[in-house]
Amino acid sequence: MGQSITFKKADHLKEKPGSAKLGFGKLFTDYMFEMDYSTEKGWHDARIVPYGPIKLDPAATIFHYGQEVFEGLKAYRTEDKRVLLFRPDKNMARMNQSCDRLNIPKIDEKFVIKAIKKLVAIEEAWIPSEPGQSLYIRPFIIGTDAALGVHPSATYKLLIILSPVGAYFGNSMSPVKIYVEDEFVRAVKGGVGYAKTAGNYAASLKAQTKSEELGFDQVLWLDGVEHKYIEEVGSMNIFFKIDDEVWTPALNGSILPGVTRASVIELLKKWGIKVKEKKVSVNKLFKKAEKQKLKEVFGTGTAAVISPVGFLKWEDHVIKVANGKTGKLSQKLYDTITGIQSGKIEDKLGWTQEVKLQKEKEAVAK
Ligand code: COI
């Protein structure tokens, strides 16, 4: 693994978007991180270079067999102008789990966190400071061998790109409408459902389009074998408040182990709320709703943060949750997580890591 990170200065810098409404993942900063892998050299040639197109052979394995993994995390600006990352160690550990499943050589987690910090420090001016805004960090690895045989690539590229973002859904705390998908499935146990890999999202697009055409925001996936048990939503994990308990589908090999999911479970337990990670059947959930026991539903994710769910549709059944409004617990979780991320709430759990802006920038200048 290369120890030093080189820096190539851009000729021109782009205009920053200011505090305008940013949306999600549409703008990209001036620089990106790049690093290559070969069997002989391992991960090498770590560099920060101007953001731009990359050149790949048309036969590269990524184009044909989708050998790819990715991550999503964010850098947050605090009121006193510091910059924090939220649990980057968890993202990097998950990236290596995904690499393992996709037969991609593992990364040095600490080194990639160092690369993220350096890139974020260089791009500090792109970190938005309005409430709900942040700098989204997307590390990803692709197989680059020019070869059409179905084999793991011998060469790879790791890239990290940055995007200033606002809410993933139009308005961060307006409840979303979710459609329970009963025809298509996302993943099965033994497959790649727990890995953060492009194919899982490609497989979701047809159902996502269908749900949007029907007037919904996202799809709720059921298990791939029996179509009975709830797994996750398009871009987030899912939680249900049933009376005074909170239920979430147990990780079973086909569900993404979300960093926000894990953080929410820790917070709820700390607050003395009973959390059950269990198999949740859609039938049972709708029965609980009929009996007025389903009090709140919310999704969790890096992009989605905490997204309250206001409506759920499954076959002919429709549930309006919490009167279509944001529930108290969803709001408390949103305030606490975003409070810790933005430094407004003291981080007693050691979840944030500060990007030492001056130190990182000086190291690049040398
Ligand atoms: C994230 O929450 O970071 C994700 O990667 C979800 C989605 C945007 C694909």
UniProtKB/TrEMBL annotation:
Q: What reaction(s) does this enzyme catalyze?
A: L-leucine + 2-oxoglutarate = 4-methyl-2-oxopentanoate + L-glutamate; L-isoleucine + 2-oxoglutarate = (S)-3-methyl-2-oxopentanoate + L-glutamate; L-valine + 2-oxoglutarate = 3-methyl-2-oxobutanoate + L-glutamate
Q: Which InterPro entries match?
A: Aminotrans_IV, Aminotrans_IV_CS, Aminotransferase-like, B_amino_transII, BCAT-like_C, BCAT-like_N, BCAT_family
Entry keyword set: Amino-acid biosynthesis, Aminotransferase, Branched-chain amino acid biosynthesis, Pyridoxal phosphate, Transferase
Family, per entry: Belongs to the class-IV pyridoxal-phosphate-dependent aminotransferase family.
Q: What is its EC number?
A: 2.6.1.42
Q: What is this protein called?
A: Branched-chain-amino-acid aminotransferase
Can you name the source organism?
Answer: Sporolactobacillus inulinus CASD
GO MF assignments: L-isoleucine-2-oxoglutarate transaminase activity; L-leucine-2-oxoglutarate transaminase activity; L-valine-2-oxoglutarate transaminase activity
| Record PTM N6-(pyridoxal phosphate)lysine, positions in chain | 196
| Pathway in which the depicted protein is active | Amino-acid biosynthesis; L-valine biosynthesis; L-valine from pyruvate: step 4/4; Amino-acid biosynthesis; L-isoleucine biosynthesis; L-isoleucine from 2-oxobutanoate: step 4/4; Amino-acid biosynthesis; L-leucine biosynthesis; L-leucine from 3-methyl-2-oxobutanoate: step 4/4
What cofactor is this protein dependent on? pyridoxal 5'-phosphate
Q: Which Pfam families match?
A: Aminotran_4
A Gene Ontology biological process term? isoleucine biosynthetic process
- Gene3D superfamilies to which the protein is assigned, alphabetical: 3.30.470.10, D-amino Acid Aminotransferase, subunit A, domain 2
